[in-house]
């Protein structure tokens, strides 16, 4: 089966003017360069990167809003910028910070409009709306004007609006931004179910690494417009290894522990944080030989730490190359 | 087509949620109508006729202008599209499998239809209660007046859509909107009937698109000789502007969306 997204040497530049009128300085800024990847049907892929790395630019090219400056791009077999309207009928898009819903009207009205927008047969539309209403618990606020919805409710409404035409690909730009823990988890569970039950391919950008750990089997990291990593989460951890942390609760406060294979990075009363460079079992044995331990906790590196390390590594590598 | 009917209905219902604003607008239109009419009546007390207008014609045009103010929006407010370009919200509009111009046309006609019913008719009724107004004679004349108002709404939309499209190049349409409101209120005949201007200026302004929003419909309604002679000439002028401007809207939309820069991340 052909991939659902195919990007080859994708690039986008912007011309930026600065300075005073008449003395404008124009320069070209490259937002995305030489990005090549493909996404197969049924995958959930996280597209990560710091602000300004080129994530949103890529998303806009994928959905056809922005025309690439160079490279080849196919989404569901279409060329997005030339076939934007046709493509829009095949994909669902949610930009977390923007809404497609009618601000002043009850949520139900916006959802009803999608039937005409995507030419969905009335029976299919009603069935899918009933399903989504149940899964995302929309019932209590279907009749509420969108401007009165909470952010979590609005996001669930936007997700529904993007899915009523049963798209093969769902593109999400920061779908959990600003949401509380419960709303985030509702949305994550829903996305997992959508992917496993209906085979919907999902591409999402996020700064929320909980999203990544819960949802994405594969992650792509973009930095300074280039694809810095493409692989699964554990490979990302291996590429930019981050130490595990042993948290030790002693029976009484003590000066920072000094043992081989660990460095104390933080001390708070009887609790100490040890960054591990050796096997945890050996370190625990060494600590218990000299201290009385009340409790122990081993913390895996957070994906956040991993990505930050990857960025730093990339940056030093590129600095080295330039210098 | 069914999509655009649905969008039209959403546009209409959207404005119906702001009852207090509608009522306030209605009061404003009526009060300004009363003030303008009183001033013009004072003028006509000194002179029985100005350029073929008598006092009744003048007062009727004042209330027509106040009634048309909301549906054609000659004085603003600008189309929401301009603000969406500025904030980057337009990305969402471009993600719909629908063309931008017809979508906004349907949306805006929903708004105009709502204000026609709930602002124009009551405003004109207030004028008719207080003063003697000149009404069209017979169903054919009423029909032409209705078509003229519909064409005025199309021209009003097309102009505001073009102002908003400028945002794709300028990124901020607030300056355009200020200029547009000035041009719109002066050249349309909203501020002062174009009939009161010196002949050459008055008839030149009547040929420009802005006049098709207020002055030309008023000519048709009052049965005056417009610049193209008679109500049918007026309708032809409006139809020509509506067609030309809507074509321009479609053509420029294609260019604008090709160079789109979505602002705000």
TrEMBL record, chain A:
One record GO biological process: response to antibiotic
Taxonomy, superkingdom: Bacteria
Residues in ABC transporter domain copies: 5-249
Topology class, membrane: Peripheral membrane protein
One Pfam family it belongs to: ABC_tran
GO cellular component, one term: plasma membrane
Gene3D superfamilies according to UniProt: P-loop containing nucleotide triphosphate hydrolases (3.40.50.300)
Keyword set, alphabetical order: Antibiotic resistance, ATP-binding, Nucleotide-binding, Transport
Subcellular location: Cell membrane
GO molecular function: ATP binding; ATP hydrolysis activity
Main location: membrane
Signal sequence, renumbered to the chain: none
UniProt name for this protein: ABC-2 type transport system ATP-binding protein
Lineage: Bacteria, Bacillati, Actinomycetota, Actinomycetes, Streptosporangiales
TrEMBL record, chain B:
Keyword Transmembrane (UniProt): yes
Keywords: Membrane, Transmembrane, Transmembrane helix
Transmembrane segments: 21-46, 58-76, 116-135, 141-163, 175-197, 235-254
Keyword Glycoprotein recorded: no
InterPro entries: ABC-2_transporter-like
One matching Pfam family: ABC2_membrane_6
PANTHER family the record matches: INTEGRAL MEMBRANE PROTEIN, SLR1174 PROTEIN-RELATED
Name of this protein: ABC-2 type transport system permease protein
Organism: Marinactinospora thermotolerans DSM 45154
